[in-house]
Amino acid sequence: MIGRGGLAGALAVLAAALLPSLAACGPDSTDEAGSGARESAIGTTAAPTESAAPAESSGEEAVTRDGCLRVNAVGDLVFEGEIAPGLQELADRLNAAAAAAPGQYAGTAFCGRYEGVVVFVKDDSEDTAEQVAKIAGEHAEFAVTVRPVGASLAELEAASLAVMAIPEYEGVITGSGPDARIGGLVVDVMAEGSSPDPEELVDAGALAAKVGLPVRLRVAGQGQLLPYVE
After folding, report:
1. Nearest Cα to Cα of residue 88 among 121, 120, 116
2. Which whole-number Å values give the CA distances from 197 to 178, 193, 212, in the listed order?
3. 117-169: pLDDT as tens digits
4. Cα separation values, 221 from 72, 118, 149, 176, 185, Å
5. Order of all β-strands in the sheet with 184-189
6. Contact of 96 with 105, CB cutoff 8 Å
7. 11-60 per-position pLDDT tens digit
8. Cα within 13 Å of Cα(59), Cβ side
9. Is the CB of residue 4 less than 8 Å from the CB of residue 176?
């Protein structure tokens, strides 16, 4: 997340999260969020495809599924359970690959119940696919899903900087960062009043048109930081 106070950590927002369960991310599954992106699953672990599920309850929080990802009402990823031995190592290796090629990858994320890892890519070239498959093959106990998105990490970070430089939003937008899941940006808006609606202060559609990417808004301080893996 890039705030108006500076760019500290801007390049550390490479990963959206690392996944656990690929049981919900089967081959060629269509995400529930409506992007319609085609996914491919890599790995030897059998991963049956689950049908799209309605919102589930996570404590007091309503959660929906987007493939194997679990998403709360404001669009942040949420997680349940514990990271299995070896999964963090897989995540670290995939993050390193993404960090080395920010023009090809958009980020990574854990599945909502730590069953595997989702890799978001803009460049789904043969070289990228081979690199992900090689890493996944050395951690065959976990499934890895590749999901194409519309922008790379480099493009998302550049767009985040552009948002923070728009004069009309100074004092209104307090932060902007990549959201690899949507291939766009998550933008924090300063809360006003007891029941703030960020759409009353920032037109998400107009902002998306300015930067040429999908945008989702959050009330600053009320949404969790995206679970980027550092």
Report:
1. 116
2. 21, 9, 23
3. 999 999 767 889 899 999 999 999 998 999 999 999 999 999 999 999 999 99
4. 15, 27, 27, 13, 17
5. 2-3, 173-179, 184-189, 215-219
6. no
7. 333 333 333 333 333 333 334 443 444 566 664 332 323 334 445 554 55
8. 5
9. no
Flag whether pLDDT at 99 surpasses 60.
yes
Residues 6+ apart with CB under 8 A from 51: none
What DSSP string runs through 73-131?
A: TTS-B---S-PPTTHHHHHHHHHHHHHH-TTTEEEEEE-TTSSEEEEEES---HHHHHH
Per-residue CA distances from 203 to 19, 33, 168 (Å): 32, 21, 12
Residue 228, pLDDT score: 34
What tokens appear for 215 in the block? Answer: 């945008």
> How many residues can be counted in the chain?
230
* Dihedral sign from CA coordinates of 151, 153, 159, 163: positive
Query: What does residue 90 show for φ and ψ, rounded to 5 degrees?
Result: -60, -45
- pLDDT, one tens digit per residue, over 50-87 is 334 445 554 556 899 999 999 999 899 999 999 998 99
Query: Cβ(108)–Cβ(16) under 8 Å?
Result: yes
Tokens 């119940």 correspond to what residue?
A: 113
Residue 211 tokens read as 């930067």
Distance CA 132, CA 93 (A): 9
What type of residue is 128? Answer: T
Distance between CA atoms of residues 119 and 146, nearest Å:
5
